[in-house]
Amino acid sequence: MNVETALQRLKEKGFKRTKQRERILEIFVKQDQYIAAKEILKEIQNDFPGVSYDTIYRNLYMLTDVDILEATELGGEKHFRLGCDTHGHHHHFICTTCGKTKSIEFCPMDSINENLHGYDVENHKFEIYGKCPQCH
């Protein structure tokens, strides 16, 4: 996904195009990894010195709600990344050093469901953490 595609999706969902949102999206397009909200704040404050942490966080959650960003928790803190080109249901390997991700092409729940007879799974999230080849 590029910045223009993301901005078009925002427009379709009824959200305005703002310079701050453009800048946030540019940061994510540059980096193929999960990024903490405080890192986004640090980078965006160069262009928007008065922007608050709350404003960044609200925008990150809004971008997640409209399926532009994906969110996860790493080290007890929310991290965000640009949504994958993988459409629909998918999972990730996440590097604990650099935050880069790799999509997992199958769903482990297919195997897990075999052990959950009688249970009604409503949702799940599956992530694998470790070191990518560059950080290993």
Percent range for β-strand residues? 15-25%
Mean pLDDT: 87
The CATH class assignment of the largest domain is Mainly Alpha
Q: Major sheet: size, sense and barrel closure?
A: 3 strands, antiparallel
Strand order in space, largest sheet: 1-3-2
Number of domains: 2
Q: What is the share of helical residues? A: 25-40%
- Shape designation: globular
- Amino-to-carboxy terminus distance: 28 Å
The tally of helices reads: 5
CATH topology of the largest domain: Arc Repressor Mutant, subunit A
Sketch the topology as an H/E string, one letter per element: HHEHHEEEEHE
Per CATH, the architecture of the largest domain is Orthogonal Bundle
Question: What is the subunit arrangement here?
Answer: single chain
GO molecular function: DNA-binding transcription factor activity; transcription cis-regulatory region binding; zinc ion binding
Main location: cytoplasm
Subcellular location: Cytoplasm
InterPro entries: FUR, Fur_C, WH-like_DNA-bd_sf, WH_DNA-bd_sf
